[in-house]
Amino acid sequence: MERDDDLVREGDRPSESIVLITGFAVRYNVLRNGKRQITALHVPGDFVDLHGFLVKEMDHAVMTITPCTVGMVPHETLREISETHPHLTRLLGVSIAVDSAIHRQWLVSMGRRSAFEHTAHLFCELLLRLRVVGLTTDDSFQLPLTQAELGDTLGLSAVHVNRVVQELRKQGLITWYGETLVIKDGPRLQQIAEFDPTFLSLKTEPR
Amino acid sequence: MERDDDLVREGDRPSESIVLITGFAVRYNVLRNGKRQITALHVPGDFVDLHGFLVKEMDHAVMTITPCTVGMVPHETLREISETHPHLTRLLGVSIAVDSAIHRQWLVSMGRRSAFEHTAHLFCELLLRLRVVGLTTDDSFQLPLTQAELGDTLGLSAVHVNRVVQELRKQGLITWYGETLVIKDGPRLQQIAEFDPTFLSLKTEPR
DNA sequence: CGCCTTGTTGACACCAGTCAATTCACGTGG
DNA sequence: CCACGTGAATTGACTGGTGTCAACAAGGCG
């Protein structure tokens, strides 16, 4: 798939779920006044649309922000799995639970962190998530987002994102050149963001 | 349980999950500087701590904000259910999916709605959720939150919550006296909040 | 009766939004 | 190889929504 393709549209009633194999995608809502809020950033390995299996109708859309390759899993298959493979079902549940943990952290960032801290927190989160799937080299990774898209993710204006990014650069915390983001001082960035890496870690359950 | 009791503490590794039978509870995080963000409001009927079954360690706390009665479900029971009752398992999944839908709406509100719209949206959501469990009379319900707690929910200061509530009153949209909140003009409130009631509705799946 | 929480109000500060112009990075076509 | 076009990044000036601080009112309760 190309850049800026819709994977799911608002109002859809999908009959299959999507696994993101390579590339980045975003989940978002658009308001009447044209403002957009991105509610999730999906990286390779993410089950992008699992809850579409459970809810009636999509209340939001998902689109690629880079060229992507995806896998499709028919809901029928998911149903069979949920009836015959309880431990796989649990894995799906864990996937949803992790999404949920990320959502909670985003809420904390939106509500109670400054734009600076919020941005730092997101970068910490992405470094960790991308490291898990082997997409980092040392403390850097590809961040194929425009500053405007980053603003829609953070709930900030594009102009203010720019100011914040400049400040992060000036303080020697990051470098962001082209699509490559380098975390230059991870510990301090985590400290600023009050980032707790354990919120992404999962219980390794028997079975 | 009394008011302001902890149901779950940050860092806990619970061995049972909680069903809220009567009363209200909140899920929250506290930052170093003392700021608090409430990430979920739980009403009677909610499965408060389902994901504690799936994740290793709680990254947040849950406490009652009214006297509550709760039911405890050992994780062992949940595991048995997940292995032998796929359709019940699905119900649990749906519960998580609904939480997730609410979280996304909160993110949109936090990021892209004004304080006024955000507050209106929350009131619309609560009216609908409480109606589903039969806790409304006409367009009113019990809202046992202080304005400070409401601020921690919305990501606003207590002072600003007060200003917003005054404005909602002045425009004839709500009444809030004691713990009783009355929605006086639901349609207009929904319109202001850009509230879409379908985001809480669920697919009624065979089995 | 006096404390303590909650709600309310006003003055003021500041973070972040908006608007508009400019620069920069690139890709394309002549 | 260079002129242009386009989207992204950057900058500055100004606005405005929300936070902070502080004081006061209104109840509820021991």
Description:
2 copies of one chain form a homodimer. By secondary structure, chain A is an alpha+beta fold. Chain A has 2 domains: 6-77, Jelly Rolls; 107-200, Orthogonal Bundle (Arc Repressor Mutant, subunit A). Chain A contains 6 helices and 10 strands. Chain A has helices at 75-84, 86-112, 115-132, 147-154, 158-170, 186-193; strands at 6-8, 16-22, 25-30, 36-42, 61-64, 69-74, 136-137, 140-142, 174-177, 180-183. In chain A, the strands form 3 sheets. In chain A, strands 1-5-3-4 form a 4-stranded antiparallel beta sheet. In chain A, strands 7-8-10-9 form a 4-stranded antiparallel beta sheet. A two-stranded antiparallel sheet of chain A has the order 2-6. In chain A, strand 7 and strand 8 form a beta hairpin. In chain A, helix 3 (115-132) crosses helix 6 (186-193) and helix 4 packs across helix 5. Chain A starts with 5 loop residues before the first strand and ends in a 14-residue tail after the last helix. Chains A and B meet through strand 4, helix 1 and helix 2 of A and strand 4, helix 1 and helix 2 of B. The structure holds a DNA duplex (30 and 30 nucleotides).
CATH superfamily of the largest domain in chain A: Winged helix-like DNA-binding domain superfamily/Winged helix DNA-binding domain
Binned, the helix content of chain A reads 40-55%
CATH topology of the largest domain in chain A: Arc Repressor Mutant, subunit A
The interface involving the most residues is between: A-B, 54 and 54 residues
Give the oligomer, counting copies of the same chain as homo and different chains as hetero.
Answer: homodimer
| Average pLDDT rating of chain A | 91
| Largest sheet, spatial ordering of strands of chain A | 1-5-3-4
Counting helices, strands and paired strands, the structural category of chain A is alpha+beta
Please tell me the total number of domains of chain A: 2
**How does the overall form of chain A come out from the CA principal axes?**
globular
Which CATH architecture of the largest domain in chain A would you pick? Answer: Orthogonal Bundle
Quick one: biggest sheet of chain A? 4 strands, antiparallel
